[in-house]
Design goal:
The chain has one domain: DD-peptidase/beta-lactamase superfamily (Beta-lactamase), CATH 3.40.710.10. About 35% of the residues lie in helices and about 20% in strands. It has 8 helices and 13 strands.
Length: about 325
């Protein structure tokens, strides 16, 4: 037994010596880059630095914003920090009116048949409210229809845009509601593309999400900023000048980044707006004000109050 034990110990010693020798030779002769996380010539992974967190704080003794009871809803959000600055009835359902066209535009972008595709106006496109005054059969491109829909808030061109995607009306409305759910608009229902039907229901909270998606869209944003759009009718050989419904584009007290209006008897005046003082962009939603002029005044007052009341917190 003693002999077997001695033999086992010797074999174990020989094995360990060979193992140590192998490790020594590998370390000595194998290039160091073999053990490196990134081989020579390979690009090192880019580590993105997170943007500094912006914190907004309320100034001491800042006054409250007086929100009349006649307003249906008012919501103000600081875009840089994401902080909700004011919320008045922001979760109450309300007819969107032509704010609906923002979702129509997004769904058209998702299913865009091409900006230069020609569509012809049909009788079925005609509904009440704002419209492009042309005869049935008048041709226009998808881009032209989009400009007229967003700048002049024409209901018939919004319906024509929905047709231009090649989707049935039912399928297009399904896409509108699916898109709403995708961006978190869980209290919203769309029933048609133009906004003429008061059955297009949402909340100020949801409208703020819609505004973020549509008003911040790099393709659509320049369209919202056009004070007017001059369109050539190839049938009558005449120009039509479509004026923007957003009167704040002419304001000197703030910078409009993008905006959309809505107006129905059932909803009164609605506005979603992105504005800035050159440093602090805000998202503002106004629902249920008597007139659009009054809604624009509310936006201006709400913006100035926000900039005067809240400030960036110093590190």
């Amino acid at each position: 037994m003693s002999g077997c034990s001695d033999l086992s110990v010797r074999l174990n010693q020989i094995f360990m010596r060979r193992l140590y020798l192998t490790i020594f030779l590998v370390v000595l002769f194998v290039p160091s880059w073999v053990f490196a996380a990134t081989p020579p010539g390979a690009k090192k992974p880019i580590v993105k630095k997170s943007a500094p967190t912006i914190v907004i704080e309320r100034k001491d003794d800042a006054p409250e914003l007086n929100v009349p009871d006649s307003f249906q809803a008012l919501m103000i959000t600081d875009e840089q920090s994401g902080r909700l600055l004011l919320s008045h009835n922001a979760g109450t359902p309300w007819p969107l009116a032509s704010i609906t066209k923002l979702m129509t535009a997004l769904v058209v972008l998702d299913n865009n048949p091409g900006w230069n595709k020609t569509i012809r106006m049909k009788k079925e496109d005609e509904v009440e409210g704002a419209r492009l005054r042309v005869s049935v059969g008048t041709p226009l491109t998808v881009r032209e229809a989009m400009m007229i829909t967003l700048v002049g808030s024409a209901n018939n061109t919004a319906n024509a845009l929905a047709r231009a995607t090649g989707l049935s009306r039912t399928k297009f409305i399904e896409r509108m509601n699916a898109k709403a759910k995708k961006i978190g608009m869980n209290s919203t229902v769309f029933v048609e593309p133009s906004g003429i039907d008061p059955g297009n229901i949402s909340t100020a909270q949801d409208a703020a999400l819609l505004a973020k998606a549509a008003l911040g869209n790099p393709t659509l944003q320049p369209m919202f900023l056009a004070k007017q759009y001059r369109w050539y009718n190839r049938t009558t050989k005449k120009y039509h000048t479509i004026k923007n419904t957003d009167q704040l584009l002419n304001a000197s007290t703030l910078q409009v980044l993008a905006g959309k209006t809505g107006l129905l008897d059932e909803s009164k005046a609605n506005v979603v707006m992105r504005v800035s003082n050159g440093k602090r962009p805000l998202s503002i939603v106004v629902f249920g004000v008597e007139t659009l002029a009054q809604a624009f005044s509310v936006v201006e007052e709400a913006a100035q109050w926000s900039w005067n009341t809240f400030q960036k917190k110093t590190p």
